[in-house]
Amino acid sequence: VSFSTVLRDLRQAGSVTIISHVRPDGDAYGSMLGLGLSLELAGKRIHLVNQDGMIPMYAFLPESHRVQRSTPQAPEADLLIAVDTSTFERLGPDCVSWNRPVDLNLDHHASNTLYGRTNLVDAEHPSTASLLWQLIREGGLPVDARVASALYTGVSTDTGSFRYRGTTAATFRAAAEMVDAGADPAELARHCYQSTSPQRFQLARLAMQSMQIEMDGALAHLAVTREMFEHSGAAPEDTEGLVEKLLEISTVRVGALFESMPDGKLRVSLRSKKDLDVGKVAGEFGGGGHRLAAGIRISGDPAAGRSRVIDRLKTLIQTGT
Ligand code: 5GP
Ligand code: MN
To answer: Ligand 2 (ion): which residues have CB within 5 A?
Structure first.
């Protein structure tokens, strides 16, 4: 739908609850806080909740303590707004159990299932945060340094520091406006890219030792086991960014990460450097995402799931589809 429909809903609401996906990343938190704080400046009561609450890595974000852990009790608000979340299920078991429809679904994933009553989904945007910045500016919603810093963090992390495809002149213009509004690029980069915990770095070291490289160097994959978490003392979110490391290898076209989850499921992260569509592959396994970044959750025997995905990725590299 158009911005004006969304802006009308936002203007009419006295209170909003903003939610986002499980295992939130910089774009999820930045979008929740950026939109939330802007709406609060506009006089609305805001409630920010997530299945995973706030994680230490993003506690530097302005007003990060405002992101509360969700509960099975549905929050009361005029509007329930989901940001950066491609499917209803990815909002997590609490949100799903509320039995309340999502009023506004604001996202940039092409695979978004349009589960909201109103859906603003623009896959041209490299981040939800940049979409929200455009919405806020066009709607004349209030902005301050906190709003700008939160949204800048979302754009920076989802674009890999303005490196990934999807980063356009408009992205830089939006980022420049955010800096004008008070976002500090060096300070935020230090928090996002130079604040790794020793435990996280140890996990990366162990994971890198598992690396296998196949197909004349075109396919590289990592396995993260529960033992690696135990030995390193790393947190669940500490695998974020690992799979991207594989794309630093010149020959690699597709990178994959296979993470054993505590519930026995296999979490698969897929990344493509350029032309190969890993989003399509993820879709075939019941996952989703974008062309160059996608994910899957596989139940059943993890080893079997892993080799099925690897076989499929080999075909992708061989045939291009
Ligand atoms: P990541 O590998 O960082 O977890 O996810 C990469 C992209 O794939 C994200 O944009 C995310 O939306 C999508 N994604 C990851 N896991 C899943 C999944 O289990 N299901 C779906 N539908 N999308 C996923
Ligand atoms: Mn995003």
So the answer is: 27, 84, 128, 158
